[in-house]
């Protein structure tokens, strides 16, 4: 079954060229089925790119998904056309009375700023609390993972001596969990961050469970409330060329730019990236949708809470 997306969303044509089955709202109305409702709060600067990355992964499921893109009232994006935001995004105030089967909250380029100094921190906290009563399962990615852990559990973020940048071998610590069904003993996760959350802080909180970890990049996945929340420190959703674009963007503009680790063939940017994480990325998102959204959400969406 396809994803159900807003008419004329740019991701539709991109994914059709990749032979991914998507349908717009007009065609979806002809099907007599309740789709799973997924909200995406997209905080990344290049919103069209992030939309496409997430939709690509969410498409790998036999279920019909209805995607709603959320935006903040207290923040105006600088890198996405106003027309795109007006056409495809709705403010939190417009969606707050609705229920959703799943939600994804993305990262944001705010790592070095204290949470309380983020311009839209108050609205973010309101959305975090709202998700607990209006969403069956929520994925928090990168900065959102750190922000969610801080908001709900007081877990601090710690600055790193240098940027965690590359593709890192990661181990499932609870391989019997449904989120890891079909996973190998080791999978790889893209990381691109200047701060971290630490095992010793998380272990102090009984409601939190570290379920994946890397010897190089540290805590990778944290689960709470039996899978109602997942906090992902990296970017499984990244496209093959995302780190390459980031590396070339910063090269020459900053003095702390290093080659992304375990990424390029023979560590040579001219030979291009070696893609080692996409299979597990697809599996992770499919498992989340199947086992923690579809299998857990009530048939009557208004019963979520």
Describe what you observe in this structure.
Pathway: Amino-acid biosynthesis; L-methionine biosynthesis via de novo pathway; O-acetyl-L-homoserine from L-homoserine: step 1/1. It catalyses: L-homoserine + acetyl-CoA = O-acetyl-L-homoserine + CoA. Pfam families: HTS (PF04204). The chain has ten helices and twelve strands. With 305 residues, it is α/β, with parallel strands linked by helices. The protein has one domain (3-239, 277-303): Rossmann fold (3-Layer(aba) Sandwich). α6 (121-134) links the parallel β6 and β7. The radius of gyration is 19 Å and the shape is globular. The two termini are 27 Å apart. The relative contact order is 0.14. The model is unreliable at 27-32 (pLDDT under 50).
Average the pLDDT over all residues and give the rounded result: 90
**What's the N-to-C terminus distance?**
27 Å
The helix/strand order is: EHEHEHEHEHEHEHEEHEEEHH
CATH architectural label: 3-Layer(aba) Sandwich
Q: Outline, from the CA principal axes? A: globular
Report the portion of residues in β strands.
25-35%
Our Rg estimate from Cα atoms comes to 19 Å
Number of separate structural domains: 1
Count of helix runs: 10
* CATH level-1 class: Alpha Beta
Largest sheet: 12 strands, mixed
* Structure summary, number of beta strands: 12
Unreliably modeled segments: 27-32
User: What is the structural class?
Assistant: alpha/beta
Q: Say what the CATH topology is.
A: Rossmann fold
Approximate helicity band: 25-40%
The CATH superfamily is: Class I glutamine amidotransferase (GATase) domain
Keywords: Acyltransferase, Amino-acid biosynthesis, Cytoplasm, Methionine biosynthesis, Transferase
Protein name: Homoserine O-acetyltransferase
Subcellular location: Cytoplasm
EC number: 2.3.1.31
């Amino acid at each position: 079954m396809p994803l159900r997306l807003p008419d004329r969303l740019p991701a539709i044509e991109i994914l059709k060229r990749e032979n991914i089955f998507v349908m717009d709202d007009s065609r979806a109305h002809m099907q007599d089925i309740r789709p799973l409702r997924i909200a995406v709060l997209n905080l990344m600067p290049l919103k069209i790119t992030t939309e496409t990355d997430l939709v690509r992964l969410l498409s790998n499921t036999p279920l019909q998904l209805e995607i709603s893109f959320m935006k903040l009232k207290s923040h105006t994006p600088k890198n996405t056309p106003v027309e795109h935001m007006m056409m495809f995004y709705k403010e939190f105030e417009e969606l707050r009375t609705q229920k959703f089967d799943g939600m994804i909250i993305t990262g944001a380029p705010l790592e070095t700023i204290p949470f309380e100094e983020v311009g839209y921190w108050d609205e973010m906290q309101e959305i975090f609390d709202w998700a607990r009563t209006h969403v069956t399962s929520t994925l928090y990615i990168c900065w959102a993972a750190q922000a969610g852990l801080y908001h709900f559990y007081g877990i601090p973020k710690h600055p790193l001596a240098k940027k965690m940048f590359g593709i890192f071998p990661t181990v499932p610590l609870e391989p019997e969990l449904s989120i890891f069904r079909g996973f190998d003993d080791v999978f790889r996760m893209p990381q691109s961050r200047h701060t971290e959350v630490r095992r010793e802080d998380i272990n102090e909180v009984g409601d939190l469970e570290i379920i994946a970890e890397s010897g190089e990049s540290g805590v990778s996945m944290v689960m709470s409330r039996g899978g109602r929340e997942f906090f992902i420190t990296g970017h499984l959703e990244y496209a093959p060329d995302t780190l390459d674009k980031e590396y070339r963007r910063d090269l020459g503009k900053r003095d702390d730019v290093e080659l992304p680790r375990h990424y390029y063939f023979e560590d040579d940017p001219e030979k291009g990236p070696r893609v080692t994480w996409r299979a597990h990325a697809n599996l992770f998102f499919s498992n989340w949708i199947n086992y923690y959204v579809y299998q857990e959400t009530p048939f009557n969406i208004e019963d979520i809470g």
